[in-house]
Amino acid sequence: MLPEWILVVSSSLAWLAVLALATIVSQLARRLQLLQQQVSGNAGQERVLESLGQPVPPLALAGPASDQLILGVPPAAPAVVLALSQRCPPCAGFWAQSAALAASLAARNVLLVLAVPERAVPAEAAHLPRLVGEAALAALGLSSFPSLAFVDERGHLRGRGVLRSVEEVPEIVSMLLQPTVDTEGKS
Fold this sequence. Notes:
- Helices cover about 40% and strands about 15% of the residues.
- The chain is an alpha/beta fold.
């Protein structure tokens, strides 16, 4: 029979080996989780980039004077879609400036459309056409507030992004109204 100290040492070594193996497996699982997050994040970014330049889905606009308007179909194109929420503190400045912003865009023949998660809007924006509901926001890839999407005269999504201030909107629209250059097949 083996001496008792050999049994104690061998069982201690076996437990150390199990503990080391468990540590390695947990580190591997954590690295796989990080890799999965990176891959899914990249896939989400690719979907967002793929939707740029594509036609927007036909979305009916709500609000007074917007009967029969479909986003992406003239006269609802070109359009700036402004995603706002009444529960969003940074959106307060956008609500207050919505009438002036709509007039400024109308001077460029661009329609301002609000995209809101809730049906009610502040009185200063009640006259503007709007898309209502999370589904409309998701269809345009607008997931944060305040943000903007630009639909060109052909009804294609030209750009989208998160906004920091109302002053950014005219600058962004000026850039997006520039004619596109087809570089496909050119070297």
